[in-house]
């Protein structure tokens, strides 16, 4: 399986690549449009701010490339947030592949933001992307912004309010949590992504 990770500058790229290689995938890092478009699977990783992530994609000339992909595409953490229309973080226009606006999580004296740690995945609808992942399974999150629960949500999680933890619309998929840091649950999600049809 030929998988290309878009060189978006995220700190999680190395660990995502290693997780894929453990599953037998040839995971390459690239910012080359032709290489990305020819890949069997594409992953948009990301850690950091939406405005910086989108600026990086614009700088590399990859915004329209990502929007035009027809093979399975998986956004991870910030990469998932960039799949949506817009983000409150810096009032950023994102890729617009999924409808919705990413908003800041609301904390209080007992609820820390950013949300960091293990949290439950609550199944919203069934999809091959989450085959073998039990309803209520735990995954590892690190984020201060989140996408709303929409018709594209496969699994939600709750930190103050419910948000999308796993999404899919056709070939476009996203995980707010970090599969590369989520033990067996994360490995199964990546394995499913390698097998899923667009």
Walk me through what this model shows:
The chain has a single domain, classed as Rossmann fold. The chain is α/β, with parallel strands linked by helices and 198 residues long. It has six helices and 14 strands. An eight-stranded mixed sheet has the order 2-1-3-4-14-13-12-9. It has a four-stranded mixed sheet with strand order 6-5-7-11, with helices on one face. Strands 8-10 form a two-stranded antiparallel ribbon. Helix content is 25%, strand content 34%. Strand 12 and strand 13 form a beta hairpin.
Fold blueprint:
Blueprint: E1 2-6, H1 13-22, E2 26-30, H2 33-38, E3 41-44, H3 50-59, H4 63-68, E4 73-76, H5 78-81, E5 84-87, E6 92-93, E7 98-104, E8 115-120, E9 122-123, E10 138-143, E11 145-146, E12 153-159, E13 161-169, E14 172-175, H6 183-195
Parallel strand pairs: 1-2, 1-3, 3-4, 4-14, 5-7
Antiparallel strand pairs: 5-6, 7-11, 8-10, 9-12, 12-13, 13-14
- Percent helix: 10-25%
Report the sheet-strand fraction: 25-35%
Through-space gap between termini: 15 Å
Per CATH, the superfamily is: Class I glutamine amidotransferase (GATase) domain
Largest sheet: 8 strands, mixed
Number of strands: 14
What is the CATH class? Alpha Beta
Number of helices: 6
Query: In which order are the strands of the major sheet placed?
Result: 2-1-3-4-14-13-12-9
Low-pLDDT parts are none
- Rounded mean pLDDT is 95
**CATH architecture descriptor text:** 3-Layer(aba) Sandwich
């Amino acid at each position: 399986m030929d998988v290309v990770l878009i060189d978006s500058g995220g700190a999680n790229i190395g660990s995502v690549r290693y997780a894929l290689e453990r599953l037998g995938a040839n995971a390459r890092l690239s910012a080359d449009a032709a290489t990305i478009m020819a890949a069997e699977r594409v992953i948009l990783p990301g850690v950091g701010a939406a405005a910086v992530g989108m600026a990086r994609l614009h700088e590399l000339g990859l915004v329209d490339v990502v929007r035009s992909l027809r093979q399975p595409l998986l956004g991870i953490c910030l990469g998932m947030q960039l799949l949506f229309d817009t983000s409150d973080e810096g009032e950023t226009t994102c890729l617009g592949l999924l409808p919705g606006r990413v908003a800041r999580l609301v904390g209080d004296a007992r609820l820390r933001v950013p949300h960091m740690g293990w949290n439950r995945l609550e199944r919203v609808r069934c999809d091959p992307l989450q085959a073998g992942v039990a309803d209520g399974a735990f995954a590892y999150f690190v984020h201060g912004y989140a996408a709303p629960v929409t018709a594209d949500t496969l699994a939600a999680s709750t930190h103050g309010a419910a948000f999308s933890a796993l999404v899919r619309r056709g070939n476009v998929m996203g995980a707010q949590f970090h599969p590369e840091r989520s033990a067996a649950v994360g490995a199964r999600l990546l394995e499913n992504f390698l097998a899923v049809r667009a």
